[in-house]
Design a protein that fits this description.
Layout: H1 27-45, H2 51-75, H3 81-103, H4 107-141, H5 153-157
Amino acid sequence: MANPGAQEVLSGNETLAWHDGLLLGYGPMDGVHQEFVQCVSALQQAADADLPAALDALEAHVLAHFGQEDRWMEETEFPARECHVNEHAAVLESVRGVRQRLAQGESAVCRRLALELARWFPGHADYLDSALAHWMCKQRLGGKPVVVRRDMGWRRAMGHDASGQDR
């Protein structure tokens, strides 16, 4: 089940920020997702001189983050794991390619990566990760995740009513 309003489109000058619309209800995953948002946000806001360190931090996070999710999928025999694992691999390949180009002085490509990750993540979380969160809760806790969203203002801002339906 998708999270209404979690997917949002950022303009080129907006920074990815954590909000309750990104919550999936599986605590370990929500925690690592908050860290991902922080890493992408830091990359988006970094001065040119700080881009290499911010990209290093993002790559280290992505390796751990995607590695954990990939292990969860493998250990629990998650049915849709191939597509999910492949998407993780593609993102990691992009990060590594940008690292090489940044080393050659191409800071614009690093900024583009940050923007594209900020645009990509809400949809990835909303579709692929939410299915995994449901699966993990069912496997480990015996039921679907319960998500409590404190700030419903994002729904109205995204054109949804309080129930998450389009107005």
